[in-house]
Amino acid sequence: MKVRVGTGVGSVTLLLAVAMACTSAGAQAAGCTAPKAAVVTITTTTTTPTVTTTTTTGTTTTGTPTTGITTTPTTTVTTTTKTKRKPVKAVRATSTTLSLAGLFTVGKAKVTVPHRSVEISGRIRPYVAGQRFLVSESVDGSRFKTVKLAARCLAGTNTGSFDLKVSAPRPGRVTVKVRHATTKTMKAFKLQGSFDSLNPNVGPGATGVFVELLQQRLAALHLFIPQTGKFDLGTELALDAYHRLLGEGEGIETLGPKTVTALLDGDGSFHVRFAKQGNHAEGDLSDQLLAFIDDGTKVQWIFPISSGKPSTPTILGSFQIYYKEPEYTSDGMYFSSFFHGGYAIHGYNPAPDYPASHGCMRLPMVDAIPAFGWTRVGDWVDTYYT
Known about the structure:
This protein is mainly β. The chain is 13% helix and 36% strand. It is built from five helices and 23 strands. It has helices spanning 25-29, 209-220, 233-245, 257-265, 365-374; strands at 2-8, 11-17, 52-56, 74-78, 95-101, 104-106, 109-112, 118-125, 132-139, 142-150, 152-153, 160-166, 172-180, 189-197, 280-284, 289-294, 298-304, 317-320, 323-328, 334-340, 343-347, 361-363, 380-384. The chain has a six-stranded mixed beta sheet with strand order 6-7-14-13-9-10, covered by helices on one side. A hairpin with a 2-residue loop joins β9 (132-139) and β10. The protein starts with a strand and ends with a strand. Mean pLDDT is 85; it is low at 1-69.
């Protein structure tokens, strides 16, 4: 067998000569002769494989040819594209405030006393999540406390807020500083607030801002007190009346921590019992207090008094002023407003811190003229025990 391979573009030709001999007797008998060379032409086509690439998410699939079958392989390649994030730019606070509540105002000064809480509130706009602040508290430049706080978002707004309470350990100038360091999302800023913590240990003859505050708070509770800025007799009498108002008894003219707290908290009030009488006076003989009432319900002034002693008690009931006498009477009554017979509201020396009169309601001499100026003929005067 001979094979001839011819070359050509896209084909291969094979010539096959086959020489066959008739070897069997049967074949020869049948007239079989050796055949001529036979030429067989076989043509094959060469196919160029095609690769198709498809971008998908997830898997890669490659076609695999099957025996006896011509296939076109397909290759799928997954390509992942990463998007670069833009860097977040730190924002600047456009509005920052620091508010201090629970302070008292004396003149232009914001004041309180040691160990009394002051509420500090901060507001920052815009709100940026995750921001924290360092708060330092000092007295006269000496730091006594440092805390860290996180801002929270006020509902329905784009404003961040934080709150804390501060109490000074001693008298002095108190400064609260709030610092926010620059972060990736918000730039740095500072807030600061200050107030004065006053020394409450004062006594007769003292002056200063705390004495002014003391007189201011006594007046706010309607205790009669000339606001002189000095711890004087008027201040002592107002303190005496205040202790009576608190139910602590008569004759206490000192100022301790408990009284300071009660006074600054606004504790103590006079209960009006005859609201339908318009401008009138009420004598509470149990607490030895006399109150002047405006328009039936508004307490104007409260004075300490000395009512009738047990042998000559003050008359009880509701009466009207019928006569007023300025200056002294013949028996030493000073600026008197008579409401029944010889019973009157008047100044007298002494006006002790217990019932000692002959039935009148005695006032300290320094209180007599203001009281006389307030009353009018026809005003009601009510006296009672509680």
